[in-house]
Amino acid sequence: MKNVILLAILFFSISNFAQIKGTVTDEKGNPLPFVSIFEEGTYRGTTSNEQGQYQLQVKEIGRNKIVFQYLGFKTQKITVSAESKTIILDVKMQEESFALNEVVIDPKNNPANAIIKSAIANRKENSEKTARFTADFYSKGILKVKDLPKKILGQKIDLGPDLSSNLDSTGTGILYLSETISKVSYQKPDKLKETIIASKISGNNKGFSYNTAALSTYDFYDNTLEFDVNLISPIAGNAFSYYKYKLEGSFYDDNKQQIYKIKVTPKRDKEPVFEGYIYIVDDSFAIYAIDFDIKGYRMKNEFTEVMNLKQSFSYNTKNKIWSKNAQTLSFSAGGFGIKFSGQFNYVYSNYEFPETFAKKIFGNEIVAFDLNANKKDDSYWNEIRPIPLTLEESADYTKKDSLQTIRKSKKYTDSIDAKNNKFRIIDFLRGYDYKNTFEKYSFKYEGLLNLTSLSFNTVQGFNLDSGFSFKKWNEETGKSTSISTTFNYGFSDQRFRAIGEFSHRFNAINYATISASGGTKTAQFNSTEPITKFVNSISSLFFKDNYMKLYNLEFVQINYAQDIANGINLNAKVAYEQRKPLFNTTDYSFFKRDDIYSSNNPLAPDDFSTPAFSQHHLMKANVNFRINFGNKYISRPDGRYNFKDEKYPTVFLAFEKAFAASEKNYDFERIGAAVQYDLKLDNKGLLGMNFKAGKFFNAENISFIDYRHFNGNQTHIGTTDRYLNVFNLMPYYTNSTNDSYFEMHLEHNDMGFVTNKIPLINLLKSTMNLGFHSLAIPDRKPYTEFTVGLDNLGFGKFKLFRIDYVHSYQGGIQQNGVVFGLKILNVLN
């Protein structure tokens, strides 16, 4: 019954609207894109599309004054009489003649500076006028690819049949097209509640768009605007340290208010700054419009060539508020010969500005979808869509939507799968993938020569992995089940090892997952695996260094994980473990063949006969909690998507107990906690923090395996983006403990705040890292490290390297070293 009433209300409200539509051009007949169009005295508005076409809903049928506002052209106000439900109104706009009095511009008397200073002085007052609002919101996003090559670095590009069919013979076409209609409540600085009423994705009638109002909240009244780095607003409190201004003229809008056009240019090219034009209203010094370019290198995103941000504001004579009615964000990007472009249009209408909001308006749920948001038909969209589709967009919807039924059919998916599932004799060696798209399951065989798994260590020598995996999933319910086996063979110890795993996820709401695994494998004494297989292989084969210390682990374990409350995740594990010591079985290396590897005993690297521990078994139980305070989330019919609130830290709590051991002295308990937090310092960078602490109980004689080991690094190679969980010069096991411990990691990335201002260094477009790391354990002098280095180093678009100088100190022993960061190893591992 409720649905019938809501449908009747919707039909009644739509039937009382008239639609004004047409095309906006210049005097030569050229279409004008993104013209701001609104009904005078209201917050009902829209913009024209790339072809100059627009459509505007007016509620009260009669004599309506429609305002057409476009940068560089005279604002027009046209009165129309609604004689039918649809009114055709084509408009030709005249170029604005900017007036600029003859003035002598010098550094001491620049009229643009005076205007900007007034805009800065009135920034807080103007921002407060739109600090709280509700509005209707529309968004449209489109992503295109151009000149997609057939191969990259010799590898064939496979986008899949659905995406590939969207491209023409030159590798050009639309990859993504989506729209949303929603209602938004917003309170500065960051409180948002959005209910998406309608969602549409080209070629996917089950899809829920990712376009949300959260992506449109760029506010130039703030000191900084968040992109990949924080960019300085041209009317920020410190704007004159970053920008130069030039008054290019002024004009009067339809309300007889004088508007200043000011050109904004950076003082230094590599700074996080905008470039373009800002339009300021006289007297109130509010923002009238924005038209800025953002160079990719200025926001530390080398793959983005340029991004353009346009905003237009409309004035309401009743409440005297300038409010943003439209925003366009477009960009061009590329790499490896591929060129991408994208454009996102946003329209705000039907504003209301309450003095306060009810307390329950804003909560942890920031976006919710109506149950049938993705079920709206074409007639609904044609009636309510504020920006008409272009011919290209209409063609894309028509083509993809018509093909959708075919592509989802069993006959079509089976035919595509049959083509890709063909088995060849060589697949015995290189691996084989089988997929049933319609039934939603897949099978994978890794191959006998899985060279990507090839590694070397002194216990196994060269070793390879192979295995099988099976997965079945349900996109609507979020359920998934996977079964896999991994086989490993060491050529030096001539030993075959295997493990099996089973995992089942029950849903995509609380992500309840149960898993079981078991088998035998080689394991590092430090279970967090501080040295990767790839780096260890290079260290051993080229430099005759043996850092990876291994033991044989036979185990069976069961895991269960679930979000038990908003922002609180539980992970519990029970395991039986049989541990056996291992010894070196090879002395092979490419170089330094006369040298001898250290032993596999981390406690005695020169002792080749004494094991680090005696063979034993035990049971282990672990309970871990991850707490994200203020956790935000998006609720969709197909799942819940969590977003950490960056204002708060993440807290980790752990309890570990070993019991039923082969010898009583191996039993113990341990509690642990960690706090991780990123403190954003506006344009001055990011301070990352990671604090860890813990305490063992009844652990005087436990196995060395169960000690608390800390992530050292003796290879001088960094493999992570940030060094917030590693000591870059500390040996891997010299500070392991079975008592209490406290470790602290601090790392500040200036995001270019300092390096952008240093001649020659700024040509690198790099960032500077300052780090401090400390470890405290009983009966031992503290270990400390200081680091300074450059990040975001590389060639052209590929900034995959960093370099750090490290100074360490412990008990009078000092070390100095250089660590080379190779972030590409994240991919290889």
Automatic annotation (TrEMBL):
Keywords: Signal. Residues 1-18 form the signal peptide. Transmembrane segments: none annotated. Gene3D superfamilies: Carboxypeptidase-like, regulatory domain. InterPro entries: CarboxyPept-like_regulatory (IPR008969), DUF5686 (IPR043741). The keyword Metal-binding does not apply. It comes from the Bacteria. The keyword Lipid metabolism does not apply. Pfam families: CarbopepD_reg_2 (PF13715), DUF5686 (PF18939). This is CarboxypepD_reg-like domain-containing protein. It comes from Flavobacterium defluvii.
